[in-house]
Specification:
The complex is a heterodimer of chains A (247) and B (339). Chain A has 247 residues and is of the alpha/beta class. In chain A, 32% of the residues lie in helices and 28% in strands. The radius of gyration of chain A is 18 Å and the shape is globular. Helix content of chain B is 74%, strand content 0%. The chains are: A alpha/beta (247), B mainly alpha (339).
Chain lengths: 247, 339
């Protein structure tokens, strides 16, 4: 369970997040939505302990995120970034194996169990055939799935994902979302742009509008035509439990 | 089919083979240096020493000049290679080494100034000032590098070039002010293992052993740093702490190596790259292999430097640069798409 306690983030005199307070429930998928530049990534970085808020604090299981050591936090939260590096000289297998770092001792070799976990996560994300490829030899979507596999090998109760499916084709979008759906015990916070995908796969919603939290609660109650118009300036209506955009 | 489940750690057999090769090269360069020493003469000299109690000239030369010189080139080779490998991961840029970043030049300036001030009379006098100027250089580079998430090649090269030019200007200035000490000052800019003695070995040896140990200890963290600071942090690396510690340790190593042997260009670039071509990018292999290969490489260069044109001696730094500079240009060319 994650608690956001009056989070405020300013870059210079620009206020990115303005007094955000919310509870992110354990064992559910929470969508973080809003237009580009509204602070979604910034919020995720705060939760992941990568950015110290200007004021306010983030609690993970009741403990401030900045009180965790890097190692302890990496056993608690895994992070899938929006962009990943393409010039790494490691194979996909080695990259995914890096996710086992928080469980390994210094100078210790990776164990049979580490290898098995890597194989299992790579099969789940449909990347096992890419295991010997290097990032430069993969497409953007393939690399993205490798990064998701790496986050899964961290075997954390919390998974933070910044637009994990934006680069993927429809089939892989569904595959990844089903995979997250099946990970019942995980607390997943996911930045996502596709409203219908969120409606179909996510439980809760944090909807942002110019640095403020406009809505928090079940996803179906938040993605209303009024909210969509307010946040995105696009008119839409619901039909068959799906959002249809009116152009 | 390559097995993906192979160990990321150094292969003990490879380490053994490299160690044996290193010992063979050490033995060879002890015997075939500037003046060939025959094994039987050496044994005879030992006999004579034991019988008469007076050390023959040849044995004195062998024990107090030849062996320390060989050991110094081994240590400096190891230091520069391990620091190059570490810098390449910390700055996430394959074109980094102590020479290209200007850290070696920074250390050489401190060493030359310390010498002019007469600090060489004190224990660690030269090394301390070399360390101060080298650290200032690293802080400057790190300050520039940490503005963005990653250091771009252009910024890196410009900083290094600028530091090197600035320092060579200051050193020329110092030479004009102290013309009678020109040779000694010049020594630090060229790199040479001539006239190194046991006291130099005893200063550099502990620094090399402890420093390399620290870098080896953080081998996996260096791998994760290559994936980016934030990625490393979310996979459990105390990024800032590790970077600061490793920059400090490597800078101490470079400062001590430069203080005793001057600037050797490109060693930290050539050796880790050659190792990566064969062993892959995993730092848990690259670092230990580089230590041994760097020692072998610099020792071979130094042996060539003082035997090729005997009785003249080529500065060993010019030899390493003649090998390193073309490699550097090749790497720039090869990487031009990715930067």
């Amino acid at each position: 369970m994650i608690t956001l306690d009056h989070i405020q983030v300013c870059f210079g005199d620009r206020r990115i997040l303005d007094d955000i307070s919310a509870e992110i429930a354990g064992g559910r998928i929470t969508a973080v939505m809003g237009p580009n530049g509204c602070g979604k990534t910034t919020l995720l970085r705060c939760i992941g302990g990568l950015l110290q808020p200007s004021s306010g604090r983030v609690l993970v299981d009741g403990k401030p995120v900045h009180d965790y050591s890097a190692r302890a936090l990496a056993q608690k939260e895994a992070f899938v970034r929006q962009q990943s590096q393409t010039d790494l000289d490691f194979s996909a297998f080695e990259i995914v194996l890096m996710g086992r770092n928080p469980y390994q001792r210094r100078l210790q070799n990776e164990s049979q169990a580490d290898w098995d976990i890597v194989e299992q996560c790579m099969r789940q994300t449909n990347t096992w055939h890419l295991r010997l490829a290097k990032p430069g030899q993969m497409s953007g979507g393939e690399l993205q799935r490798v990064m998701i596999a790496r986050a899964l090998t961290q075997q954390t109760p919390v998974l933070l994902m910044d637009e994990p499916v934006s680069n993927l084709d429809i089939a892989h979008q569904f595959e990844i979302m089903h995979l997250l759906r099946e990970a019942r015990e995980k607390t997943i916070v996911i930045v996502i742009h596709d409203l219908n995908l969120a409606l179909q796969f996510c439980d809760d919603l944090l909807l942002f509008h110019s640095g403020k939290l406009l809505y928090q609660g079940p996803v179906a109650g938040g993605l209303t035509p009024e909210n969509i118009r307010t946040v995105y300036g696009v008119s839409a209506h619901m039909a068959d439990n799906r959002i249809i955009y009116d152009y | 089919m390559v097995n993906e489940r192979r160990s990321g750690r150094a292969n003990p057999w490879v380490l053994l083979v490299l160690t044996v090769v290193l010992l063979m090269v050490i033995a060879a360069s002890c015997l075939f240096g500037m003046v060939d020493i025959k094994m039987e003469d050496l044994l005879k000299a030992f006999e004579q020493w034991r019988a008469e109690g007076r050390m023959p000239q040849m044995l004195h030369y062998f024990l107090n000049f030849r062996i320390p010189r060989v050991l110094m080139s081994v240590l400096v080779g190891a230091v520069l290679s391990v620091c190059g490998a570490a810098y390449q991961s910390i700055f996430r840029n394959p074109l980094t080494d102590p020479y290209i970043l200007g850290v070696s030049s920074g250390a050489s300036l401190g060493a030359a100034v310390a010498f002019l001030l007469g600090l060489n009379a004190f224990f660690w006098g030269v090394e301390s000032l070399a360390l101060v100027t080298a650290l200032l250089t690293v802080l400057l580079i790190y300050g520039i590098a940490s503005i963005g998430n990653r250091m771009h090649t252009t910024t890196l090269l410009l900083t290094g070039v600028c530091m090197t030019l600035l320092i060579s200007a200051i050193i020329s200035f110092l030479i004009v002010l102290n013309p009678h000490k020109m040779d000694s000052i010049y020594f630090w800019t060229m790199g040479s293992f001539a006239n190194r003695g046991w006291d130099d070995v005893l200063i550099l040896l502990p620094v090399t052993v402890v420093g390399s140990g620290v870098v080896l200890w953080y081998g996996r963290d260096l791998n994760l740093l290559l994936a980016g600071s934030e990625a490393a942090r979310s996979m459990g690396v105390e990024v800032e702490k590790v970077k600061r510690l490793l920059l400090l340790v490597t800078t101490v190593m470079v400062a001590f190596a430069v203080s005793s042997c001057g600037v050797l260009g490109f060693v930290g670039l050539i050796v880790p790259h050659a190792v990566r071509l064969v062993a892959g990018a995993d730092n848990r292999k690259v670092i230990p292999y580089s230590i041994l290969c760097g020692a072998i490489f610099v020792l071979l260069c130094d042996t060539l430097a003082h035997t090729l044109l005997y009785p003249n001696e080529i500065p060993v730094g010019s030899l390493t640069s003649m090998i390193g500079a073309p490699l550097f240009i090749y790497l720039l060319y090869k990487n031009k798409k990715s930067y």
